[in-house]
Amino acid sequence: MIIKSFTFNPFSTNCYVVTSNNETVIIDPSCQSELEHEELTEYVDSTGSTITRILLTHAHIDHIFGCARLSEQYGIGIEVHREENVLLEQATFQAQMYGVELVQPPKPVAQLEEGQIIEFGSVRWQVLHTPGHSPGSVSFFDAKNSLVFSGDVLFQDSIGRTDLWRGSLPILMDSIFNTLIPLGDDVRVLSGHGPNTTIKRERKANPFLVDFSPLS
Questions:
Q1: Angle at 126 between CA 21 and CA 26, to 5 degrees
Q2: What CATH code is carried by the domain that includes residue 206?
Q3: Coil, strand, or helix at residue 184?
Q4: Interatomic CA distance for residues 49 and 27, integer angstroms
Q5: Residue 194 DSSP class
């Protein structure tokens, strides 16, 4: 498995391109500008692989800028949790609120569900429903390789904001303490923003976690 990360758009959002046995999955296509789109597609094309899925951890605008163009270019649909459909449908309105341009993404071809297994090449991920930052936020857990793509749930030294539509700090903390942390200290966390980290590091040093009493 080869993981290539890109940081795109004014929100510095991470996009992950994961390739295994000539199959590629894109997580959060955040490329906004022409140069960003070219950088991403040039890399994908250089792998000689086929894009089989476009997965969204959630549908805030900074994670979906490239959905429409990539979906059309490669003939592959997007997948997102059903609780994010409203956000996806209101994508252009979201963009107007932030004063940026965005092409409306297509309707999802599939809905991601808690416990769902995603397989491509030799990769096997489990979908974890991790709401709080948004109602349908999901993380993708790779038990074999001890890593999780956490979207905007958990970052190095920080957590996802909860002041947006249907955000909730108690729900977010429940997702972190009862879903992500139990994955184990050795699990690498590949976040939606910022550098990679580990569950152990955040459990011990993240200022938003060390003094928080988790929900029972």
A1: 50
A2: 3.60.15.10
A3: coil
A4: 16
A5: S
For residue 43, which amino acid is it? Y
Give tens-digit pLDDT for 8-33.
999 999 999 999 999 999 999 999 99
In sequence order, the β-bridge partners of residue 188 are 147, 198
Identify the H or E element spanning 149.
strand 147-151
By residue range, what is the domain housing residue 136?
2-210
Residue 47 lies in a domain: yes
Q: Considering the entire predicted model, what is its pTM?
A: 0.95
Q: How many domains does the chain have?
A: 1
User: Could you read off the pLDDT of 124-166 as tens digits, one per residue?
Assistant: 999 999 999 999 999 999 999 999 999 999 999 999 999 988 8
In a domain, 215, yes or no: no
- Which among 48, 47, 33, 4 has a CA at the least distance from the CA of 196? 4
Per-residue pLDDT of 109-130, as tens digits, reads: 999 999 999 999 999 999 999 9
CA atoms of 177 and 49, how far apart (whole Å) = 37
Q: Which residue reads 């139990």 in tokens?
A: 182
